[in-house]
Each structure stands twice: as C-alpha cells, then as structure tokens.
Specification:
The structure holds 2 protein chains of 2 kinds.
Chain A lengths: L4 E9 L6 E4 L10 E5 L6 H13 L7 H5 L10 E10 L2 E10 L4 E8 L3 E4 L5 H4 L4 H7 E2 L1 H6 L8 H8 L3 H19 L6 H51 L2 H32 L2 H4 L1 H16 L8 H7 L13 H11 L5 H18 L4 H38 L1 H26 L15 H61 L7 E4 L3 E3 L7 H18 L6 E4 L7 H10 L7 E5 L4 H11 L4 E8 L3 H7 L4 E3 L3 E5 L1 H6 L2 H6 L1
Parallel strand pairs in A: 3-12, 3-13, 8-11, 11-12
Antiparallel strand pairs in A: 1-2, 1-4, 4-5, 5-6, 6-7, 9-10, 13-15, 14-15
Chain B lengths: L3 E3 H6 L11 H14 L10 E3 L12 H16 L6 H11 L10 H24 L8 H19 L1
Antiparallel strand pairs in B: 1-2
Helix pairs in contact in B: 2-5, 2-6
The chains are: A alpha/beta, B mainly alpha.
Chain lengths: 657, 157
C-alpha cells in the first residue's frame, strides 16, 4: 500500500524554543505545498528540528537525563513540557506527543491513531513504522549536515532508503516468512540433514535385502517340507501296504487303527466339552463365580439399581407440585434436577437388573459347582488322552511285530523315521520365520512379519526426511531467487536513480562536472570523494528529488536552511527544484536565504507558499509591528503569518538576538 | 467400538484355533487370563484388528455375565466401594452402555481390550516358562490354561 504522509501542525510548550503552535493547514484542511518558517538565529530552530526528528522517530526513548534536561526552558519553573506533531496519514489523523518530566528528567511518548485512540508509547500505524524511525526520518527532516553524511558511508545507508521507499524489503519479508515456515517444519523432525537421509536410506535398503533373503529362505524350506511330506506319505503308504500283506497281523492292525481313531474322536469331543465349560467365566474358577455372586449381593445391599430411575426425578422437576402435594419452586426444582444425577437412567437400571438375573441364572446357588463340572470334564479329557495314547501304543506294538516278520519293513521304517526327523527339523526352522519376537537385532531376526513391520517403519522415516529435505531444497531455491531478485531490483533502481539524479545535478550546476558514480551505502561521486558544501547539498537535493518523485510513497520534506550554503547562482535552480521534491515542503529559513532563493521559489510556485515568522519576545517595536498582522502569541514567542512581515523582517532584528 | 484381537495372539493360537470355530475364543481366552491376573496392556492399531462389536456364537448368551465379571474386576482395580454411590454410578456409567450390543461403552471396550492384550502376555510368559513356544493341540492347551487360572486365583488369595 502506498503511503501519503503530511504534517498538519506541530506544537511546543515548556521547552527551550519559544512556545508555539504552527499549522500548515489551509482553510480547506489541505496542507500548503510550500511553507517557509523564518526563525532567526537563537529562536530555537535547531531545537525545534531536533524535537521534530525525535517526536517522529521515537529516538527520545534512548535519551539520558542530561539530554532531557537540555530541553528545559531557561529560567522556567515548569515541571513539564511537550512537543506534539499532528500527521495526516492516508487521510487519517495520527498524533505523536513527546512529553518531558523535568522533575524526574524523563520523557515519554504517547500516540493517538484511528481505531485505537490515545495510548502510551511510540506506536505509529504499522505501515508508517518503516518511515518513522531514526535513520529514515533524517531523509525527510533534512539539513546540510545530513547532506554531507549522504556522501559518507560511515553515516548513512542510501540503499536502505531505496529499499524502504521502493518496498524491495517486501522480498526480504517473503524470505523471512519462508524461513519461518522451514524452521517450523524442521523443528518437528528428528533428522534433517543429508547424514540422516543417508542413514535412513541405508536402513531401508538393508531391511529390504534381509526381508527378501528371509522370504527366499522360507520358500526354500517350504518346498523342502512339501517334498519331505510327500516322500513321507509315500513311505507310510508303502509301509502300510506291506504290513497289511501279512495275514497273521492284518486283522489285529485294522482293529487297532479303528480303536485309535475312535479314541482320537473321544479326545476331540472331550476337548470341545472342556472348551464349552471354559467359555463360562464362572466355571473357570469358583473364586470367579463367588466374586460374581458377591457383585450381585453388594448391589442388592446398597439397593442398586434403585427402584426409581433418574428420569422420574427429571420429570418431577418439570411439574408444578411434588408427588406429596407440596408446590415446587425454582430452587426445589434445581435441587431435584441436581440430585437426579445421582440416580441411574432407566436403561442402566434395566441392564443392571439383567446382569443380576444372569448371575443368579448362570452361577446359581452353589457357585463352586460350576468349576467342579469343568474339572470333571478336564479329568475326562485326560482319561481320553491316556486312552488314545494306549491305543496308539497298542497299534505300534502290532506294527513292531509286523516289522520283525519282514526285515524290508525295517528299512522302510528307518526311512520313515529319518523323514519324520527331517520334517520336524524343517517345521521347526520354518517356525522361526513366523516368530513375533522383536527383541533381537535385524540380522538375528527371522520373523518375517517383524521384519516387514520394521521395513514399513523405516520407509516411513525415510519418507519423512525425504519430504523434509524436499522442503529444504525448495526453501533454498526460493530464498536464493528472492535474494537475486532483491539484488537485481536494488541495483537497477539505484542505477536509474543515479542517472536521473545526475540529470538534475546537470540542471542545477551546468558548469560543474560533479556526478554520482554509484549508490551503495552512500552516494559515490565520480572521481572525487566530496565536494563543497553547496555542491554536496545540490547533489543531495538532486538525489532526494529523484527518489521522492519516483517512489510510490509521498512524504513531507522538511529542510533546515535549504539554500544558505549554496552559491547565489545555484539557489535559483534549487528553488525551481524544491517545489517538485515533495507534496509538502517545509523550510526553516533565515534572512540571508531570502536573496535569490525565496524570490526564485515565489516564481516557481506562485501562490502556493505559506509564510510564517517565529521569533522570541523581547523587542517591543517588533512585537507591536507583528500584532498588526495575523499573529499567534505565547508566553515567550510570536508567530506571524504572511509574506509581508516575512519579507520585512530585518537582518538587524535577527542579529539583535 | 470393537473388541480387538492382537495379530500375535492369532499367530500364537494358530494350531489350536483349528479346533475353535471363532476367533472370539482366542480373544476370550486372553481376556480371562488378563482378568485373572489383573494385567492390562496397550497394543497399537497396527498390531491389532477388529473382531466384533457384540458377543458372538457361543458367547451370545454370556455377554452380560462376562460384563459382570469385567465390571467387578474394574471396580476393584479402581478401588471403588459400593457404598460410594456417586463414584459407583459414575464408574458404571463410564464402563457400560445399555444401548450398545456389547453392553459396554467405548471406554468400557477400550478397557476390556487392555485386559485381553495383557492376558496374551500372561499366556506367552506362562508357556515360555515351561519351554513351550506355543500350544499345538487344544487337548494339551486347555488343562494348562485352567492351571494358569488356578495359579493366579491362589496368588490373589
């Protein structure tokens, strides 16, 4: 947003300069384009300028007691003083006041601005802050000393003013914002750099290889298991076939197999019966059953659930009368509603009642009986298991008889034993790949699901850092681009400003070869380090005139003795230039500047000049004369409006001070 | 809110579960071990999967009795005396939900799942002490399971 700033008036009271209130407002509330404030030496011109700078820049916050004391009005008993500047900022009023407490030798600021009102401290609107600071204020509250400093890199930073006026700093703000975002992202991540990325990438690679290797090992074992199992089936079939060919044991073997199968069925049925009982919590332990009965008894003892549900009381609280016939007032209703919360809802009541019923139904009167039933079933299961074992032994004995009868069967059985051992070993090896043990390191872990889980986590961590690094690379790229853009813009604008300023210098001093070579921290002159006072001031005006007319922002330009050190010949040119410097030009002038400068200024801007003469009281004749004009009087000063008094104000009057 | 089963428990029971018609049996066996031992454990979403939000199969008619036992154990764990009516009401309301098909509130399901996760740890440790990596047959497992419950009951006394 562009800034249009003007000074409406300033006011000083109780300070070293005469009390005064100068307004630059026309009756239409517009400010005069050019105001000339004639203040003879000794009137406090320097003090006023210093106060103006301090009030507009906030710099007085750094003042020490000596500095504060130096502003006290001579021979004055007044404990307080103030300097106030009223600004027009984009059409709104902003007032900055610097108040002096001479008892405590302190100063404090206050600010009045739209939408906020009066508040303590130096707090101009945000968009004004970049102009209302110590370094910037010096460019538009200007004097010859500052003109010299423009050529001295130890005092100024000319590029800074270009950056501020042309808003090149906006690119820095964007960079800062990007860096702030990156810091936020980086802070939430455990690893950010290339080392972290490399470490995480290696872990993913290692885990991928290990997982792939474990899967291959498992597949190989599974294939071996299939092969061994098939061989085992074949050998078993061969064994059975050869065994069944022995007539003497054929019948016994069939009967033993049938019996073994039958026992196996019994075992599974018994196990199912046990499982059915186990599914009852009250059967698992008489202690559990007793605990459940105890739960019901305890609920009964404390009369839970209540026979009355919460809803009854909530509804009662809505009635006009209690069920006892007494009327219900608001307080009683509130109390009933509050206490209703101590009761369970009807659904809760129903569930608790059902639970109590189930405890009675399932657990019964003798809780220990449930466990006894389970234990009986477990006993039956053990018996069934033993019988199955006996049936197996019986069958094996018949087989052994058969093997003794046929030596070839011995070989087959030996093969079967070997195959069974191999099968068991492969199965055991395969089980390692199903392990869920997470305690071992990667290289000692075989559990495929565990390795898969670790790989997923490692991939997630890698993705996180990859994303973080991507953001970092984007940050670096953007910040570099913005820096290049900023440097290019600054260089380009500085060059253009320099060229245009040189054209103005040529107009001001056609016979002078002084030119701006480049602009960086200061204005660098071509082939020379400095010039005469007049040359320096002319270069400064040319530079500032170019700057202020090129920039989007419009600021006032207040100058102390704009033409005093300049040759009479150049004063005319400066006077032509000044009206174009800013929308509002305020000059503190002395009598000697009237020659050439003021007269030329009148020609350059006819009818646009507002004349003010401010002087300290003391000369009766002068005061008497002043009072014949439009005059503002204070305890120790007079401020006279108009060109007539301004131009008639004599040197001897000035010198008499 | 669902009853959740640990994948590790499913794997551990894989030989026995052939003889158990529903996975809720695994959940229940773990749960009772957890309630018997009073041990709760956390398990991540990734390590568990949803089972049901009601008591299925053979457990259909036993939901309230299981809830009763859970409630009893949880009230004990919370140290709530029955005479403290307000605390008791508050705990019951927090754990049960009469309108839920499991009779349990979300908080109740969360807590009962913790007992099941803790119970699985108890089972694994119990079998490991006996140098058994996992059960191979139901007939071998069930008597050992009863023994485990009995040992915790004795410990509690």
């Amino acid at each position: 947003m562009s800034t249009i700033l003007k000074i409406a008036n300033w006011k000083s009271e109780g300070l070293r300069c005469p009390d005064h209130n100068v307004s630059f407002l026309m009756p239409s509330d517009e400010v005069y384009p050019i105001s000339l404030l004639q203040m003879p030496n000794g009137t406090g011109k320097t003090t006023t300028l210093e106060l103006l700078r301090a009030t507009l820049s906030g710099s007085a916050e750094q003042w020490d007691k000596d500095k504060v004391r130096s502003f006290r009005k001579r021979d004055s008993e007044s404990e307080r003083g103030f300097f106030q500047v009223n600004l027009i900022f984009n059409g709104s009023r902003v007032t900055l006041t610097l108040t002096f407490d001479f008892d405590n030798e302190t100063v404090e600021y206050s600010t009045t601005r739209p939408g906020i009102g009066l508040e303590k401290g130096f707090s101009p609107p945000r968009d004004l802050k970049k102009f209302l600071n110590e370094s910037f204020v010096n460019y538009f509250i200007f004097d010859g000393e500052l003109a010299e400093q423009l050529l001295d890199r130890n005092y100024t930073n000319a590029q800074r003013i270009i950056e501020d006026l042309f808003q090149i700093n906006l690119l820095t703000s964007v960079s800062n914002e990007i860096n702030r975002y990156w810091s936020g992202v980086a802070e939430s991540k455990s690893a950010k750099g290339e080392t972290g990325l490399s470490r995480r990438r290696n872990r993913v690679d290692d885990l991928e290889k290990l997982l792939s290797s474990r899967k291959q090992e498992r597949t190989k074992l599974e294939k071996e298991l299939v092969k061994v199992t098939k061989a085992l089936e074949t050998r078993n079939e061969q064994f059975r076939k050869q065994l069944s060919q022995q007539r003497e044991i054929q019948g016994q073997l069939l009967e033993a197999e049938r019996h073994l199968n039958s026992m196996g069925v019994n075992v599974r049925m018994s196990a199912k019966d046990v499982l059915d009982e186990v599914r009852n919590p009250h059967s698992l332990s008489s202690s559990f059953a007793t605990e459940m009965v105890s739960l019901k008894t305890s609920l009964d003892r404390v009369k839970l659930p209540e026979s009355t549900a919460r809803e009854f009381f909530e509804e009662l609280a809505e009635e006009d009368e209690c069920i006892c016939g007494r009327g219900l007032d608001d307080e009683t209703r509130r109390s009933i509603k509050q206490r209703a919360k101590n009761y369970l809802g009807s659904d809760d009541v129903a569930l608790l009642n059902q639970i109590k019923t189930d405890i009675t139904t399932f657990v019964g009167t003798f809780p220990e009986q449930n466990e006894e039933k389970l234990e009986q079933n477990i006993d039956l299961l053990r018996v069934a298991c033993n019988r199955e074992m006996e049936a197996k032994t019986e069958r094996d004995q018949i087989e052994n008889e058969g093997v003794l009868n046929d030596p070839k069967l011995e070989e087959v059985r030996a093969e079967i034993d070997d195959l069974e051992q191999t099968q068991a070993k492969i199965s055991a090896d395969l089980a390692k790949y199903e392990s869920l043990d997470e305690s071992a390191g990667d290289s000692s872990t075989f559990g495929i699901s565990i390795l898969q889980k670790r790989l997923t986590n490692a991939e997630k961590q890698l993705a996180e850092i990859t994303k973080t690094l991507e953001i970092k690379q984007k940050r670096d790229l953007l910040v570099n681009l913005l820096k290049v853009a900023q440097d290019t813009a600054l260089k380009g604008i500085s060059q253009e400003i320099g060229q245009e300023a040189n054209e103005r210098i040529m107009q001001l001093m056609p016979d002078n070869a002084i030119r701006i070579e480049s602009i960086d921290k200061c204005l660098n002159l071509r082939g020379q380090e400095g010039g005469s006072v007049g040359e320096t001031l002319s270069v400064a005006y040319a530079f500032l005139a170019t700057l202020f007319t090129r920039a989007e922002h419009r600021l006032p330009f207040v100058v102390d003795s704009p033409a005093n050190p300049i040759d009479l010949k150049i004063r005319t040119k400066v006077a032509e230039l000044v009206p174009r410097l800013a929308d509002q030009f305020v000059a503190f002038t002395i009598l000697s500047e009237r020659q050439s400068f003021v007269s030329s200024l009148e020609r350059s801007a006819p009818g646009q000049i507002y004349y003010l003469t401010l002087f300290r009281k003391g000369s009766d004749e002068l005061e008497k004369k002043a009072k014949t004009f439009a005059t503002t009087e204070s305890d120790d000063g007079l401020c006279v409006e108009g060109a007539v008094f301004f131009n008639d104000f004599h040197l001897d009057n000035e010198e008499s001070k | 809110m669902y009853f959740r089963l640990q994948e590790a428990a499913r794997e551990w029971f894989k030989d026995v579960s052939k003889e158990m018609p529903i996975d809720f049996d695994i959940y229940y066996l773990c749960l009772m071990a957890g309630l018997a031992s009073g041990r709760k454990a956390e398990a991540s979403q990734a390590d568990t999967s949803d089972l049901t939000n009601y008591f299925p199969g053979a457990y259909r008619g036993k939901g309230r009795i299981i809830t009763a036992f859970f409630l009893s154990r949880e009230l004990k764990a919370l140290g709530i005396a029955f005479e403290e009516r307000n605390s008791l009401h508050s705990a019951i309301r927090e754990l049960v939900d009469p309108l839920s098909s499991s009779h349990l509130s979300d908080q109740g399901i969360k807590e009962i799942n913790k007992y099941s996760f803790g119970g699985f740890k108890v089972l694994v440790e119990y079998f490991q002490k006996r140098l058994i990596d996992r059960p191979r047959t139901l007939e071998g497992f069930l008597p050992m399971y009863k023994q485990l419950i009995d040992e915790f009951v004795v410990l509690e006394k």
